[in-house]
Amino acid sequence: MWEFIRERWDLIGYNALQHANLVFQAVLVATVVAVALAVVVNKFRFLDPVANTLSAIGLTIPSFALVGLLLPLTKIGAMTAFICVAFYAALPILRNAVVGFSQVDETLIESARGMGMTELGILLRVRLPLAWPVIHAGVRTSVQMSMGVAAIAAYVLGPGLGGYIFTGLSQAGGANAVNYAVVGTVGIVIVALIADLLMLLLGRATISKGIRT
Amino acid sequence: MTQGTPSQGQSVSGAELRLDQVVKRYPGQKVPAVQSLSLTIPAGEIVAFVGPSGCGKTTSLKMINRLIEPTSGTILIDGNDIRQESATSLRRKIGYVIQGGSLFPHMTVATNVGVVPKMLGWDAARIAERTDELLDLVGLDPDRYRDRYPRELSGGQQQRVGVARGLAADPPVILMDEPFGAVDPITRQRLQDELISIQRELGKTIVCVTHDIDEAIKLGDRILILQEGARIAQYDTPENILAAPANDFVADFVGAGSTLKQLSLTRVRSLDLNQPTTARVGEEMGPVLARAEAAGDDEVVILDDRDRPVAWPWLRQMRNKTKVIGEPRENLVTLDEAATLNDALDTMLTAAHSKAIVTGDRDRYLGVLDFETVTEHMRSAEREAAENVENAEKAESAESIEDPAPTGEAGHG
Predict the structure, then answer these.
(1) Min CA distance, B66 vs chain A (Å)?
(2) Contacts of A112 in chain B (CB under 8 A)
């Protein structure tokens, strides 16, 4: 086992970084898109159940199936993997962002408006900072989930540690099959733990002390 | 052009506010929420909007800063139509204070207070200076509170910060919507007193919506009592409203005991004080007794070397002594000149003399207030106010609300 890891150390490290990188980029894009959608949903409240239903349905689609659906459109490669991860990443963020925005006290909004804040100012200086703890929690969940999704996305030759798992599966019974599977799985868990720690620190840095629980 | 010079001749930084046939009709509603409201609020005065819930008082208030757009009619601030500029730039010039302070929980006290100045593009140093000045004004030590978050403050403190925030950019007009509704009665009373003294200093035009008639009486230079549809039931000084309610609605709303309410309108300092015989601690008794007998007084107020009253003995208690002696000052109950007549009566009823010694700054002796003076004042105030209202009714055609020289006006001072 140790032999196996030592021989491939550089490659494993590289793949781990690739894995983290894929998740990071996908979650980043997903956050922007999901928060933007949530702003729209918050503006038109009747969309609220629509958004909830969609994200619930979205989460029931097996990620493996989504990869298959995307293949004819985006071909084999990193792009397909990225879209797949970003899609799943957006769902919990969207749900949390909708809840987070809806929990902002309306009297605060009116007070802000009464003081002469523009709508954009209210969004950036009042709504977003107040909804941020909830949104941040969604992003954190999303990062964890995306670690696993990114592994599946490796099926289409996407980057990351998922490739080891598939190699292990395809070589089942072979000499290094278990080694591959273990390296892939444990590697992802370690990357996920580090990412979670970073998310925690991000929360510390970005959530106002006045509303931290 | 600013009319309406408030009682003390203090500086007026407020602006006149005029509503002209303002109507608010919501789609699908048969009766307008506000049916043609017209009134003038003189610069530098506090006007309290009161009325039962749903009478349109908050709607009327929010039309002034365009949180609600009137269906028709015009609103003028200092003669300028409020629709001449964008709603956001208008609002930055109007202070807005709502229940509980409504502070942004994610911002520190200083950031909250600095919200409007920041939008107006003040530089950081000026904002910081202004913030400290305002915190000081509302009775919060800047060094201690500036960097706190709202949740670290009590309700009363939050409300104070809310008031400071409303005053931040020095707006001529301030709108308050149930400003002290969310705090306990004792804190509320203190906040009201503070607002009165801040207002005396600043002379803003303040519109304050409240459902509490007692708060309106206490705060308002004038009170606007609204009926459903924001129809004006009466718009007058508290004195006149209490003494002569315009109709049954007002009478009901003001409630029973309006004469009693008037007691808390008037301050002791606006009444004439008696000047009975006084004596200094350490004086020979002989001449003092002679003075008192010549003046026909039964008792003598004894002052210490700093003019503070220390004792109030009957003549018969003094006869057997050779020199005037004082007693520990704490034993004597006195009345501050800023006390209301309500407090004064309370003091008299529990005192031995059925009179009360009145003191001014640093407990300096001013005179003695007796029961007859208070009752006489109440009677004449009521009479005068009734006459005023009668005259005003006669001169109804001149619909402007020029100051009918209300009787107890000095009582606000």
Answers:
(1) 8
(2) 104, 115
Nearest to B104 by CA among B88, B95, B115, B96: B115
Chain B interface, Cβ < 8 Å to A:
62, 65, 67, 87-93, 96, 98-99, 102, 104-108, 115-116, 119, 149-151, 165, 175
Q: Are A90 and A36 in contact (CB under 8 A)?
A: no
pLDDT, tens digit, for every residue of A124-141? 999 999 999 999 999 999
pLDDT digits (tens, 9 = 90+) for A39-79: 999 988 888 888 888 888 888 888 888 888 888 888 888 88
pTM above 0.80, yes or no: no
The pLDDT tens digits for A153-211 are 887 777 888 888 888 888 878 888 888 888 889 999 999 999 999 999 999 999 999 99
Q: What is the pLDDT of residues B15-53, one digit of tens each?
A: 899 999 999 998 888 888 998 899 999 999 999 999 888
**Residues in chain A within 8 Å Cβ distance of B65:** 114
Distance, C-alpha A106 to centroid of its chain: 29
Q: How far apart are CA A104 and CA A108, in angstroms?
A: 8
* CATH, domain B17-256, list 3.40.30.10, 3.30.1340.30, 3.40.50.300, 3.20.20.70: 3.40.50.300
Q: What is the ipTM of this complex?
A: 0.84
CB-based contact, A107 to chain B, within 8 Å: yes
* Inter-helix orientation angle A9-43/A47-60, to 10°: 160
Which residues of chain A make contact with B92, given a CB cutoff of 8 A?
A: 115-116
For B407, residues 6+ apart whose C-beta sits below 8 A from its C-beta are B239, B380, B381, B384, B385, B388
CATH placement of domain B270-372: 3.10.580.10
Is A115 within 8 Å of B91 when comparing Cβ atoms? yes
Q: Hey, where are the domains in chain B?
A: 17-256, 270-372
Chain B, nearest residue to A213 by Cα: B151
